[in-house]
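User: Continuing from earlier, I have the next pair ready.

Assistant: Great, send them over.

User: Here they are, in order.

Assistant: Folding the first of the pair now:
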Amino acid sequence: MTHTQALWLASWRKDNIETGRPLEKGFMPMIGIVPNMTLDDAYDLSFILRNKGGVSCGKQGRLIVKLCAENGHAEAVVQVVASALRQDATKPGIIRSRDVMMALDRLRDISKTGNVRAIVMEANVARHNGNIGQAIKLYEQALERIVKETGPNPKDKYANIKDEFSSPWIELAYLHVSRGHHVEAMKVYMVGLERDDPMAYFNLARLDYYMAGNQHTTDWLYNMTKAAASGHYKAAHELGEYYANSPCPPTKKEVPFLEKLRGFATFINQSNLNLNPKVQIHQHEQFANTPEKRIKLAHYWLNIARSNYYLPANITLAELCLQKFIYPKDTLLKPLDPFGHSKDSEAIENPLFNPKEAQAMLYEVMIATLVIAESKARCESHAQYLYETTPWSKHEEVLEVVESQETLQDLEEQAEMIADAAGIDITSSHKLLEGILRVGFLRPHKGERGQGVLEIKEEERV
């Protein structure tokens, strides 16, 4: 919070207390009185109040957004309408309330000025109301303006925010796919690829997989790797599963040394080297030419997903670390075998077999499901909920994927089944991700005592 914002907030509150003037009436007059205070400053202050303060601060932050919108602040208008769309599922009819209808009128006016975020929001409203044709036209209009942009807009700092309102290619491509227009969807995703959007790479990879008849292609591998390398949690998870379950590339015939030298000389003397990144990705795939190398790549990518606090990756990592053996393909599709009972002739000793690491994965899932469920039931504001669910709320979109009661229950049940099958007592003794609460002993396994791979004596359970 800047000095100007703090001075304005204190003056606004003081005016309300001393004069009895409603906060709504004193909002703009106090912005005019405090030197250098702008509507942008007030809107930015709302984020601090909603996300860092308590219940009363959160309420005042939401009021500021509403008042900014009523006074023509474009980004506030976009957020007010977006909030109404999210609430319409649980509060049917809210989108037809007087405040929202007025915000919609302002949104259309702002959209006509060429504000991309407002155009995307107007498209979202059209789609919400079932007017898909109008939504597609508006998304295409936003996309056209983005393509024509030559750089950041210094006059509108909100135009440079990277989120759902600045990436219309995601929603537009989805609508094309839902209509069976896959080629059009691919063209739209290309705009996102030009802007290095991880979500565009991820969605294009999935579309390519579908169009190839549910087959992993070089294009799929390239796009999924690009998304995962940018930290996209689902892409990293899928890439990890791919390397754990897919077979090694066919072994190439050994080339005599002299022939290798001749080939190298030919390569060096080429007038144009093939630096196509998709070709390079294919060559990278050739290096993972043993089950051991592929399982290590799987472990690497799954840990990228886990480092984003994506709990399904923990489940997959726990399974990987509890397989006594790995196989030329489908390692994660084999029955869990922590005791090495497999008689499969293709079984290979797992270099990453590590019950302690699996224990940490399962603990992180169990403590997360407890904290998130309790916080949802107890917290009175969204800001408080985000604070209480730290570190899983570090990436709010990741938290949204796992926070439903059904998903939390499913994750908890999976963690318990793995622990019981392997005979692992769940505790916080091993290395955990930063910020995760350590409570010590959490749960004993339900299998036969004395037969587990990682048990804790009763007197040591603290």
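And the other member of the pair:
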Amino acid sequence: MLHLRYYPNAPYVKYIKPGVGIMASNDDNASAAHEFYNYLSFRRAMPLANEPHTRPPVHSALQKKTRMTEVTEKADPAQEIELSKKREANWPAVLILIHVHLLSLYGLWLLLYDVKWFTVFLLISLCFMATLGMTTGAHRLWAHRSYKAHISLRIMLMLFQTLAGVGSIYDWVQQHRFHHAHFATSNDPYDNNKGFLYAQIITRMRKLSPHQEKLKQSIDMSDLENDSVVMFQKKIYWLLYIILFLLLPLNAPLEYWDDSVLSAVFVIGFLRYFIVLHAAWLIESAICVWGLKPGQKSPPDSNSVFIISMSFWPQYHYLIPYDYKSGEYGTYDSGCSSAFIRVWAALGLATDLRTVESKTIQRALANVAKTKRSLQTCLEEALKEQCLPDQHYLRRG
């Protein structure tokens, strides 16, 4: 087996020493993700040299002395750094999310008993467009550069992403890249080690700590700063939000098919926002739902196998985030988002679709065992030799 090491500043793994060989599997991509995630579980008990160590507890008497002499003595800088890592509650977000979740329950009741079918179709359409704007737009196109898009496609995806109501593309991408750069560490705002409830909801109710804010500012955003569509949306985001997210959707049921105000507000308003929010949040917390834990088999030995198809594909995404085939919800090379990208590629509006073939992964792993270099370096060399056929996006498998 290969022993892999994860560096928090970049989503790649590094080779430490060879074992007896590389285990062959039907899918080398998933195998590489398996090795990557196995090391993550080992690493939690053993901090790396470049990670800040936890400060030992200070004796209570010493703390008391520090408080008594704080006027004349300067506080310990190390202690200030520790305090700056604490995340405070974001009370406006707490209140908004509580109201959205509670009022969406009434919207669900109206959806089942008291709305017109056109309102149901509008709800499904808006949720579908907003989710596509997040998955194929904000995530795969702008966060990971999985493909290139014509300006007309970028404008459409920008409008779709605005329907999600989760902030501008620029802000969301910066937060998501920060998540990838510090994945599975204490600096990760969506730390999956703390469980699904934390990654999905609790972290959304907290501000980033000053330490995290400082790290976040170091994320390279130069590519988005040169994207006119992204910067246009960032400049007038709240105007677009009011028009596209609030006014037009809420007005449609009242104006065009004479539905009730309650249906417009609670179904198209609160229930839609509830659905879209959780679909967008799952992009960061999906690994808690669909990702296998170290040592688990596929399918896992649990009752969830009847509901959820778990695999190592979520871990693969953190190993090779730019593969356009990586689904947000535990899939690979399937789903509406991948099909959506292929359709626009066939029409010539999406180009340079990036992916990694299983043979390329296999060559990279073999090179790691032979040369004792990092998997990232070997992957880059293998990708130079990879020759994808023309219109490979139309070929399945």
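Worth noting for the second one:
The beta strands are 4-6, 13-15, 148-149, 350-351. Confidence is low (pLDDT under 50) at residues 1-26, 41-75, 77-81.
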